[in-house]
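User:
Note these tokens:
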Amino acid sequence: MKRVKIYITIALLFASIISINAQQLTLDECHTKAKQHYPAIAQYNIIEQSKDFDIKNANMAYLPQISLGAQATWQSDITKIDIDIPVPIDIDIPVPDKDQYKVTAEVNQLIWDGGVIGAQKKMATADAELQKHKLETELYTLKERVNNLYFGILLLDERLQLHYLLEKELERNYDRVKSYVANGVANEADLSAVKVEQLKSKQDRVEMESSRKAYIKMLSIFIGEELGDKTKLTKPLANDVNSLVIQRPELQMFDAQQDLINSQKDVLTSKNLPKIGAFAQGGYGKPGLNMFDNKFKTYLVGGVRLSWNFGNLYTYSNDKRKIDLQQAMLETNRETFIHNVSIVIPQQQIEIEKYREQMKDDNEIISLRKLIREAAEAKVENGTMTVSDMLKEMTAEEAAKQAKVLHEIQYLMSIYKLKYTTN
């Protein structure tokens, strides 16, 4: 009883070691890891930080704007008051100097900017969202590349599994023909023919194993995780695509472009509206506010200022037409994308149905090929068929099994192609 418990413990230990070494991986996990490992993923933070800086810079316009200035001038003429006053009245009317000086400090506080700052903040947000959706579109293309590698490995795994069975079958037939040679039913040439098939089978296996290693290596690079030769990929479920509504990230990118165009229109409109602000100016100069006082004085001026720049109206029409052209180009790109995807969807649906129909007959073909091969083996044993002809039947049976595996993987791959097309 103790020995049985020891054997069970050892068996469980080996099973756990094998399960650890044989790493399991799903297609969804590969998609997630490939996206996380993609170098461009770091652009998300860069885009967000850049947007925050743009918004903060726009908000700075609400802060008081301080400016300093200094000026020294000489003028050829000055303001004079020419009044003839009869004598003996003695009135001294001061005359300003021709050289004048002033140093000023001015504070301007924006009260209303016509909506420019709000439109700029909206445009910064829209531009950031557009950059994010462009990045999402770029990351989405990773799915197709990962799918190709993933299903390629699945196909090689299935083919290798069948190949191992073929090699065992060839080994069994080699032993059988060897006994036939000993009994005089077959000759050395027949034995050599089986040996040739064994060597060819070995070459095919080596080639498939090498291809699998290359595929695993490429998938490792995509997901940023070292995968070993023992890595087992889980075969995804063959769930048909129920909804054919196109939900690709490209459509969200087009929507983000539309938001950016709308924000550009708002900025263009707000630039042509008046601005209202408060200001205060302090200065020191000669003369001060009293132009007839030729002494250096300090002074203070404050008030409300309205400004309206009509110069933007000169280019408003052309700027608006440029935005309208961007709008038209966006609509054309959107319609072209939807049109191209709509063409691909029926083709992929037909492809799925084709593989589904082919799979219906695969099992029957394999069963019939097995019966033919078994009959060929019996004929060889009875001496009514050559070993070469029997090997041809074995090859035909193997080809039928390989065709079934190929159809199953192609069927899965065609479903996931349609899923990729529609998202």
User: Anything to note?
Assistant: Residues 231 and 272 are 65 Å apart (CA to CA).
